[in-house]
Amino acid sequence: MSFIIIIINQDFIYTTPLSTHNVLIHSDFKPEMERFRALGRSAFVLGYTGLAGKALVKELNKAKIFTKVVLIGRREIPLDVGPEFKQKVVDFGKIHEHKDVFQGLDTGFCCLGVSSKGISQEDYIRITRDYCVSAAQVAKEQGCKHFTMLTGNGTKKDSWYLFGRVKAELEEKLEEMNFDRLSIYRPAMILGDSEGMKVSEKLARACFKPITYLSPTRLAISDSLLARGMIVNVVKPHDPSVREIYENKAIHDLAHNWKD
Ligand SMILES: NC(=O)c1ccc[n+]([C@@H]2O[C@H](COP(=O)([O-])OP(=O)(O)OC[C@H]3O[C@@H](n4cnc5c(N)ncnc54)[C@H](OP(=O)(O)O)[C@@H]3O)[C@@H](O)[C@H]2O)c1
């Protein structure tokens, strides 16, 4: 298999297979959304104050597929969402002391993570891997059946880069937890609102624009398409024989099932 490898900085490593992973396209997605809505499921979102998490909340607010959505983070932010959304502030270092916030929530989305720039390796691993694993453990104990995790393109056990190795360890630990269903997303560069981004990140995104124009599904994904891909997949009936790891192109394919 041939690969495109683009290195912009340590956190942006893209090893994109040129062959594509095909995702089943559902010709009629709306009835599936209705069917899911009728199940009366509830969810939580970790990392909802970040780029991917905010977009997920926005799309969940449009989809209205959950009766309750608990947004779990280290701070509250202003949000224009429906009454089914509740923000809860926790200390991720002591997540076992916050079991109650996960109680009875059957679906979990984890968009928590941090850039490896400007922090120690120890802190990077603690936030990127350990916070997510601990939160997943507590969520499972409290009734989470379907856990969704954002790792990233370049996730690889023997990666040269810390990002790839730590995300691979995270995926492995989540797989060992035996959720009823685990869905892993490996987006390439996530494009969205650049508010709060470092100058180097803005520059990297600007450099990417012409490339993403020429090859829209390979090297990047918009925050809203990523969110839609995750929502479409949650709604889709689960096939337990499939190991759910979605690379960038597959996330695009999932997202295009959702037409406004
Ligand atoms: N951005 C990309 O291009 C890209 C590409 C591939 C994969 N990913 C992965 O996708 C995930 C989401 O990325 P993103 O761009 O949305 O990240 P982001 O904008 O930096 O958001 C990260 C989220 O994690 C939270 N967080 C960070 N450090 C924390 C800490 N010490 N304690 C508690 N919460 C903490 C942030 O909370 P605060 O708002 O309070 O800081 C925020 O909600 C990450 O795991 C990332 O590695 C990103």
TrEMBL record:
<dbReference type="GO" id="GO:0005737">
    <property type="term" value="C:cytoplasm"/>
</dbReference>
<protein>
    <recommendedName>
        <fullName>NAD(P)-binding domain-containing protein</fullName>
    </recommendedName>
</protein>
<dbReference type="InterPro" id="IPR036291">
    <property type="entry name" value="NAD(P)-bd_dom_sf"/>
</dbReference>
<dbReference type="GO" id="GO:0051170">
    <property type="term" value="P:import into nucleus"/>
</dbReference>
